[in-house]
Amino acid sequence: MSLLQLRTFVEVYRRRSLSEAARTIGITQPAASQHIASLEAQLGHPLFDRHSRGVRPTAIADDLAASIGNSLDTAESALATARARSSRISGTVHIAAPSDLLGEMITPRLAPLLDAGLALRLHIGGRDALYAMLLEDKVHLAVTASQPEDPRLAFHALGEEHLRAVASPAVAGRIAALPLAEGLNQTAHLAYDLDRPLLRTWLEANQIELTNQPALTAPDLRVLRSGLCAGLGWTVLPGYLTRSERAVCTLIEITAPITVPRNAFYLVWARSSLRHPRVAIARDALIAALRISL
What we know:
Structural class: alpha/beta
Low-confidence stretches: none
Distance between the termini: 43 Å
Radius of gyration: 23 Å
Strand content: 15-25%
Number of helices: 13
Number of strands: 11
Mean pLDDT: 90
Order of helices and strands: HHHEEHEHHEHEEHHEHEHEHEEH
């Protein structure tokens, strides 16, 4: 069994598609089919059942994938990293993240990747868009505030930030003049979207219910921060976005009655992408650059 045959098998297993696996690896679909046929001949058992929408793994395939999948990823990643360190790396790496995280925390810390000889292309997206871009090989690395569940994706925890309820001094004063739940409900609040992910986490942790919809939504937390500074209302933001404003009292933290919840950040990549030395070295450099800051 060759390494390429095993890689083809793992990609077909994860993607449930010969054509998608072939595209990911950079071979033709007939070549991918030949790799699977060769493995099946060596094992004496079929690995996949073909159907109109792709392939279904057999029990033998399930066992083989469980035995070699992660080990193959680890071995290829180690080889790619070793190759990357043996010579100066060049090429392009695509990195994606939510716009506020990309602007505030990631971009200012990309010098080590540029110094390594990499060209960088930055992309913006929310959670679902980021995962889709990774799986479609449109980007190599992404930073998210959610831990991926798709087995085709791997991740590294970068760190955590507190989620803090904040407002301008004037707005915070009006809220403080009333019992907290009442003050929050009687004051306009701002949110990322109508689902209010960060705000909802803070409210649930502190057993507070809001009965009204956001007065303003924007899919960029920096926009919400600007709105807070202008006195438009209150919201919940990661601590790194309001650290400077809280230090000079442009924004005031609304004291949490029970707890200040934490938000985790992850660097995520498609397992197959680490075969490329430039992606492996970019991943390691990005982890080193970001884990201290978050």
